[in-house]
Design goal:
CATH superfamily: Alanine racemase
Low-confidence stretches: none
InterPro entries: Ala_racemase_N, PLP-binding_barrel, PyrdxlP_homeostasis
Function: Pyridoxal 5'-phosphate (PLP)-binding protein, which is involved in PLP homeostasis.
CATH class: Alpha Beta
GO molecular function: pyridoxal phosphate binding
Number of strands: 9
Mean pLDDT: 94
Family: Belongs to the pyridoxal phosphate-binding protein YggS/PROSC family.
Protein name: Pyridoxal phosphate homeostasis protein
Shape: globular
Number of helices: 9
Largest sheet: 9 strands, parallel
Length: about 210
Protein backbone atom coordinates (compact mmCIF):
# COMPACT_ATOMS: atom_id res chain seq x y z
CA UNK A 1 0.00 0.00 0.00
CA UNK A 2 1.39 3.39 -0.99
CA UNK A 3 1.81 6.16 1.53
CA UNK A 4 -0.87 8.39 0.01
CA UNK A 5 -3.34 5.46 0.20
CA UNK A 6 -2.51 4.98 3.89
CA UNK A 7 -3.03 8.71 4.52
CA UNK A 8 -6.37 8.53 2.70
CA UNK A 9 -7.55 5.48 4.67
CA UNK A 10 -6.56 7.06 8.00
CA UNK A 11 -7.69 10.63 7.30
CA UNK A 12 -10.46 10.49 9.91
CA UNK A 13 -8.38 8.89 12.67
CA UNK A 14 -5.13 9.68 14.44
CA UNK A 15 -2.19 7.91 12.81
CA UNK A 16 0.65 6.85 15.11
CA UNK A 17 3.79 5.63 13.36
CA UNK A 18 5.08 2.64 15.36
CA UNK A 19 8.78 3.30 14.93
CA UNK A 20 10.23 0.38 16.90
CA UNK A 21 12.35 -0.96 14.03
CA UNK A 22 13.53 2.31 12.45
CA UNK A 23 16.20 4.84 13.36
CA UNK A 24 15.91 8.54 14.09
CA UNK A 25 16.84 9.44 10.50
CA UNK A 26 13.84 7.51 9.16
CA UNK A 27 11.57 9.13 11.75
CA UNK A 28 12.83 12.54 10.61
CA UNK A 29 12.03 11.68 6.97
CA UNK A 30 8.48 10.62 7.85
CA UNK A 31 8.01 13.71 10.00
CA UNK A 32 8.71 15.81 6.92
CA UNK A 33 6.15 13.72 5.01
CA UNK A 34 3.49 14.85 7.46
CA UNK A 35 3.51 12.34 10.35
CA UNK A 36 4.20 13.91 13.72
CA UNK A 37 2.99 11.23 16.16
CA UNK A 38 5.38 8.31 16.78
CA UNK A 39 5.07 5.35 19.15
CA UNK A 40 7.89 3.39 20.72
CA UNK A 41 7.73 -0.02 22.44
CA UNK A 42 10.84 0.39 24.59
CA UNK A 43 11.56 3.30 26.93
CA UNK A 44 15.30 3.25 26.25
CA UNK A 45 14.77 3.50 22.48
CA UNK A 46 12.24 6.29 22.94
CA UNK A 47 14.71 8.25 25.07
CA UNK A 48 17.56 7.81 22.59
CA UNK A 49 15.55 8.74 19.50
CA UNK A 50 13.84 11.62 21.27
CA UNK A 51 17.16 13.12 22.35
CA UNK A 52 18.54 13.03 18.80
CA UNK A 53 15.41 14.52 17.26
CA UNK A 54 14.87 17.12 19.98
CA UNK A 55 18.31 18.47 19.11
CA UNK A 56 17.02 19.00 15.55
CA UNK A 57 14.03 21.02 16.83
CA UNK A 58 11.42 18.62 15.46
CA UNK A 59 8.06 18.91 17.20
CA UNK A 60 7.37 15.18 17.47
CA UNK A 61 4.59 13.86 19.71
CA UNK A 62 5.81 10.66 21.35
CA UNK A 63 3.59 7.80 22.49
CA UNK A 64 4.70 4.87 24.61
CA UNK A 65 2.99 1.73 23.31
CA UNK A 66 4.97 -1.13 24.88
CA UNK A 67 4.79 -2.97 28.18
CA UNK A 68 6.26 -0.76 30.89
CA UNK A 69 8.74 -2.43 33.23
CA UNK A 70 8.84 -1.00 36.73
CA UNK A 71 12.59 -0.25 36.49
CA UNK A 72 11.92 2.00 33.48
CA UNK A 73 9.21 4.17 35.06
CA UNK A 74 11.52 7.06 35.95
CA UNK A 75 13.02 7.13 32.46
CA UNK A 76 9.58 7.13 30.85
CA UNK A 77 8.36 9.98 33.06
CA UNK A 78 11.44 11.99 32.12
CA UNK A 79 10.49 11.71 28.42
CA UNK A 80 7.07 13.32 29.03
CA UNK A 81 5.29 11.32 26.29
CA UNK A 82 2.08 12.83 24.94
CA UNK A 83 0.30 9.53 25.64
CA UNK A 84 1.05 6.34 27.57
CA UNK A 85 -1.06 3.87 25.62
CA UNK A 86 -0.23 0.67 27.44
CA UNK A 87 -1.23 0.96 31.09
CA UNK A 88 -2.22 -2.65 31.77
CA UNK A 89 -3.60 -2.43 35.28
CA UNK A 90 -3.90 -0.68 38.62
CA UNK A 91 -0.55 -1.89 40.00
CA UNK A 92 1.62 -0.26 37.32
CA UNK A 93 -0.71 2.76 37.26
CA UNK A 94 -0.15 3.37 40.98
CA UNK A 95 3.61 2.96 40.60
CA UNK A 96 3.73 5.57 37.82
CA UNK A 97 1.30 7.92 39.56
CA UNK A 98 3.44 7.90 42.70
CA UNK A 99 6.44 9.29 40.79
CA UNK A 100 4.74 11.74 38.43
CA UNK A 101 5.04 15.48 38.90
CA UNK A 102 2.78 16.30 35.96
CA UNK A 103 -0.48 14.97 34.48
CA UNK A 104 0.10 12.09 32.03
CA UNK A 105 -2.54 11.22 29.44
CA UNK A 106 -3.04 7.45 29.62
CA UNK A 107 -4.97 4.62 27.96
CA UNK A 108 -5.96 1.37 29.63
CA UNK A 109 -4.74 -1.60 27.61
CA UNK A 110 -7.39 -4.28 27.22
CA UNK A 111 -6.69 -7.90 26.25
CA UNK A 112 -9.79 -8.40 24.12
CA UNK A 113 -8.06 -11.15 22.13
CA UNK A 114 -8.00 -13.48 25.17
CA UNK A 115 -4.38 -14.34 24.35
CA UNK A 116 -1.87 -15.02 27.11
CA UNK A 117 0.93 -13.68 24.90
CA UNK A 118 -0.67 -10.22 24.99
CA UNK A 119 -0.64 -7.93 27.98
CA UNK A 120 -3.65 -5.94 29.08
CA UNK A 121 -6.54 -6.19 31.49
CA UNK A 122 -9.20 -8.85 30.99
CA UNK A 123 -12.41 -7.63 29.38
CA UNK A 124 -14.61 -8.45 32.35
CA UNK A 125 -12.38 -6.40 34.68
CA UNK A 126 -11.70 -3.45 32.36
CA UNK A 127 -14.41 -1.01 33.44
CA UNK A 128 -13.89 -1.62 37.16
CA UNK A 129 -10.11 -1.26 36.80
CA UNK A 130 -10.47 1.91 34.73
CA UNK A 131 -12.59 3.52 37.44
CA UNK A 132 -10.20 2.38 40.19
CA UNK A 133 -7.26 3.95 38.35
CA UNK A 134 -9.24 7.18 37.91
CA UNK A 135 -9.97 7.25 41.64
CA UNK A 136 -6.55 6.26 42.96
CA UNK A 137 -4.20 7.83 40.40
CA UNK A 138 -4.97 11.56 40.09
CA UNK A 139 -1.81 12.28 38.09
CA UNK A 140 -2.89 9.88 35.34
CA UNK A 141 -5.45 11.38 32.98
CA UNK A 142 -7.24 8.25 31.77
CA UNK A 143 -8.68 9.20 28.39
CA UNK A 144 -9.55 5.92 26.68
CA UNK A 145 -8.53 2.39 25.84
CA UNK A 146 -6.08 0.49 23.66
CA UNK A 147 -6.05 -3.08 22.41
CA UNK A 148 -4.33 -5.37 19.94
CA UNK A 149 -6.50 -7.34 17.53
CA UNK A 150 -6.62 -11.11 17.78
CA UNK A 151 -3.71 -12.88 16.10
CA UNK A 152 -5.77 -14.84 13.62
CA UNK A 153 -6.37 -15.31 9.91
CA UNK A 154 -10.08 -15.40 10.65
CA UNK A 155 -11.46 -11.90 10.04
CA UNK A 156 -14.52 -12.63 12.19
CA UNK A 157 -12.33 -13.39 15.22
CA UNK A 158 -10.28 -10.23 14.71
CA UNK A 159 -13.45 -8.19 14.24
CA UNK A 160 -14.93 -9.62 17.42
CA UNK A 161 -11.88 -8.62 19.46
CA UNK A 162 -12.19 -5.04 18.17
CA UNK A 163 -15.93 -4.93 18.79
CA UNK A 164 -15.40 -6.11 22.38
CA UNK A 165 -12.91 -3.30 22.99
CA UNK A 166 -15.20 -0.75 21.38
CA UNK A 167 -18.07 -1.77 23.69
CA UNK A 168 -15.85 -1.07 26.69
CA UNK A 169 -14.83 2.26 25.16
CA UNK A 170 -18.48 3.22 24.65
CA UNK A 171 -19.29 2.35 28.26
CA UNK A 172 -16.37 4.51 29.45
CA UNK A 173 -17.21 7.59 27.40
CA UNK A 174 -19.34 8.96 30.23
CA UNK A 175 -16.20 8.77 32.39
CA UNK A 176 -14.16 10.84 29.95
CA UNK A 177 -12.90 8.25 27.46
CA UNK A 178 -12.17 9.91 24.11
CA UNK A 179 -9.60 7.60 22.51
CA UNK A 180 -10.12 4.07 21.20
CA UNK A 181 -6.68 2.96 19.96
CA UNK A 182 -7.06 -0.20 17.86
CA UNK A 183 -5.49 -1.42 14.66
CA UNK A 184 -1.99 -2.11 13.38
CA UNK A 185 -0.52 -2.70 9.93
CA UNK A 186 -2.39 -5.95 9.20
CA UNK A 187 -5.81 -5.00 10.51
CA UNK A 188 -6.15 -1.22 10.77
CA UNK A 189 -8.88 -0.92 8.13
CA UNK A 190 -11.04 -3.43 10.01
CA UNK A 191 -10.29 -1.66 13.29
CA UNK A 192 -11.46 1.68 11.86
CA UNK A 193 -14.70 0.04 10.69
CA UNK A 194 -15.17 -1.21 14.25
CA UNK A 195 -14.85 2.28 15.71
CA UNK A 196 -11.13 2.89 16.25
CA UNK A 197 -10.11 6.56 16.21
CA UNK A 198 -6.37 5.91 16.60
CA UNK A 199 -4.19 3.38 14.73
CA UNK A 200 -0.60 2.30 15.30
CA UNK A 201 1.12 1.49 12.01
CA UNK A 202 4.66 0.16 11.63
CA UNK A 203 5.64 -2.22 8.84
CA UNK A 204 3.05 -0.99 6.32
CA UNK A 205 4.48 2.53 6.63
CA UNK A 206 8.17 1.87 6.76
CA UNK A 207 8.29 -0.77 4.00
CA UNK A 208 7.06 1.78 1.46
Amino acid sequence: MKLNEIFEKTKNVRLIAASKYVDSGTIKNFFHLGIDHFGENQVQALAQKKEILDNQNLDIKWHFIGTLQSNKINLLIKQKPILWQSCNGLKIAEAVNKRLDYKLDTLLEINSAYETSKSGIELNKAIEEYLQIQEKCPKLNLCGVMSIGQHSKNQKEIKQSFEETFKIYEALQKYGAKICSMGMSNDFELAIKCGSNMVRLGSILFKN
